Amino acid sequence: xxxxxxxxxxxxxxxxxxxxxxxxxxxxxxxxxxxxxxxxxxxxxxxxxxxxxxxxxxxxxxxxxxxxxxxxxxxxxxxxxxxxxxxxxxxxxxxxxxxxxxxxxxxxxxxxxxxxxxxxxxxxxxxxxxxxxxxxxxxxxxxxxxxxxxxxxxxxxxxxxxxxxxxxxxxxxxxxxxxxxxxxxxxxxxxxxxxxxxxxxxxxxxxxxxxxxxxxxxxxxxxxxxxxxxxxxxxxxxxxxxxxxxxxxxxxxxxxxxxxxxxxxxxxxxxxxxxxxxxxxxxxxxxxxxxxxxxxxxxxxxxxxxxxxxxxxxx
Length: 315
Fold this sequence. Notes:
Blueprint: H1 5-15, E1 27-30, E2 33-39, E3 45-51, E4 54-61, E5 80-82, E6 106-111, E7 117-123, H2 137-140, E8 143-149, E9 157-165, E10 170-179, E11 182-183, E12 202-210, E13 213-223, E14 230-234, E15 237-238, E16 252-253, E17 258-263, E18 272-277, H3 287-307
Antiparallel strand pairs: 1-8, 2-3, 3-4, 4-5, 6-7, 7-8, 9-10, 10-11, 10-14, 12-13, 12-17, 15-16, 17-18
């Protein structure tokens, strides 16, 4: 977050343990293979796959799109799920060719007879932060997630910008995530940054070809702010995380050649991802970089004023 340095470091440390969110593009299983999706004329989806040494048949129904976070007292939409597969008796797949928007982490998708869309996505949400290699099976797991949405409901959208912070000392990114034009946010989190309601969303930030090594590595996870849906993140040097194994003692900065942010979709809408290029190190003698930083600082100030954001104020 773009806050005073002490506050920022505290946030990053605790967010390293964020477990994620509750109901969303719903979690069905982990480490599945041979995945097939069908949808019938009654609005039921049937997922068949193999996981944990068994063939699985899961029926899902009863939810589409998402509610806006207008009140924590009204729960977010979620599927009803039958893991026994018994409700699939007489199931006849009538879902046709998918012609909806591109999806990140897509396994399969289709368009139902009623014009709504269903999709299955799979990705590693629980990777450890700060470039650490997984040391637990859950951290390596590929989550299987199901979504159902209308063309009118659509997908959540990212607006992300990269620059530097604290006079060019550190790489930085900031932005906003919205659903149907309104900021995505929750109402409460744990002290570690995990949402405590069905509206909050963690943003999972990965970095490519950084000090952590070649390829993609998880940098951190953090929440979009209430009520603006804005977020901001600086790439500071991190050493060991409390509770993490002592895999390294050298402090590292996770700034990379590229970045991507993945977020579980609001309600049962699809998970979404933003990806973009990183920047070279800031050089006050480079006119182009100075101009870019000035433009991004102005952009940040404009966004904060427009959406009532109280944090993210540091340039």
